[in-house]
Amino acid sequence: MHRNPHVAVVGATGAVGVEMIETLERRNFPVGKLTLLASARSVGKRLTFRGTEVAVTELTADSFGGVDLALFSAGGSISREFAPKAAAAGCVVVDNSSAFRQDPKVPLVVPEVNAGDIRGHQGIIANPNCTTAITLMALYPLHQAFGVTRIVASSYQAVSGTGAKAIEELERQVRQIAGGQPVTREVYPHQIAFNVLPQVDSFLPDGYTKEEMKMQNEGRKIMHHPGFRASVTCVRVPVYRAHSVSVSAEFQRPITVEDARAVLQRAPGLEVVDDPANQRYPMPLEVSGRYPCAVGRLRKDIAFDNGLAFWVAGDQLLKGAALNAVQIAEELIR
């Protein structure tokens, strides 16, 4: 990879695309040239990068000539169509959709966990599911120390995980309710304001949703742990930004809260916020806009042998998406 690569952001005007551009700037990524790509309806919009306005151009099969690195966040169908074309043009793709995550030829990477897998790429590297990435930031260091066998988890997922239109929907519904007006909905099947929806993504025949199975399937691949089991309930909550996850984990080796805390305090990209006496624990409001994930509510899990219960929160537009993609790009340059 070029020292000052020509970088393209695909889906540049979406919630994650905007964060990708900002993250490249905030982390001083050595962008030689920046190309912003989106669908025809976004063409001509201008986004600011390092004080200069950059016009959005239309994504086509010919968009990747001379591009060294492409960060994709435009959904699975766009990735399936255009990522192979970008790779064929000699560009390395970091894809934020689910399109290639389970492809055995495509590394699925959280840099704090399995940066070494990047070396095996064949032009495409996959960014994991946001909830999985945030959970693994706390779970993987514990796995290294104690050997995780299984988890039971529930997620508390912010509407920005669905995209910019979902943020607008929550804002609109809160205004409608406050003004005594009827509630309208376009994005979610039910009212999201002052409600929680125990459905994220579509249902599979076994009753789990696709999102719920990502924790097990992606967790196995990222941690190189094919026997890892995860029973997950994913819940959409009326929070604008940042996901939280409640985890009960069982380990092969005995684990104490003190040992777990010591491990988590050394873990990269993670802060321990765990002071119940002073009501200090991770919250979406406090991790929003911040790079590190936060873990707290550490306690012995009384339903599992060798169990630990914990609560982890992180900004799913950052560690769950844009930050993780840029960290992968930083590894490529290295």
The succession of helices and strands, N to C, reads: EHEEEEHEHEHEHHEEHEHEEH
Q: How many discrete structural domains? A: 2
Q: Indicate the proportion of strand residues.
A: 15-25%
In the CATH hierarchy, the third-tier topology of the largest domain is known as Dihydrodipicolinate Reductase, domain 2
The percentage helix is 25-40%
**Structural class designation:** alpha/beta
The average pLDDT value, as a whole number, equals: 97
Distance between the termini: 8 Å
Strand arrangement within the widest β-sheet reads 3-4-2-1-5-6-7
CATH-level-2 architecture of the largest domain: 2-Layer Sandwich
Features:
about 325 residues, 9 helices, 13 strands, Dihydrodipicolinate Reductase, domain 2, seven-stranded mixed β-sheet, alpha/beta
Question: How would you concisely characterize the structure shown here?
Answer:
The protein contains nine helices and 13 strands. It is of the alpha/beta class and about 325 residues long. The chain folds into two domains: about 140 residues, NAD(P)-binding Rossmann-like Domain (Rossmann fold), CATH 3.40.50; about 180 residues, 2-Layer Sandwich (Dihydrodipicolinate Reductase, domain 2).
Explain this structure:
The protein has two domains: 6-128 and 321-333, NAD(P)-binding Rossmann-like Domain (Rossmann fold, 3-Layer(aba) Sandwich), CATH 3.40.50.720; 132-316, Dihydrodipicolinate Reductase, domain 2. Helix content is 31%, strand content 24%. The chain has helices spanning 15-26, 76-88, 111-114, 130-146, 164-178, 210-223, 257-266, 284-287, 318-333; strands spanning 6-10, 33-38, 46-49, 52-58, 69-72, 92-95, 124-126, 148-157, 229-236, 243-251, 270-272, 293-300, 307-314. The strands form two sheets. The chain has a seven-stranded mixed beta sheet, with helices on both faces. Strands 9-8-10-13-12-11 form a six-stranded mixed beta sheet. The termini are close together. The model has no long low-confidence stretch (mean pLDDT 97).
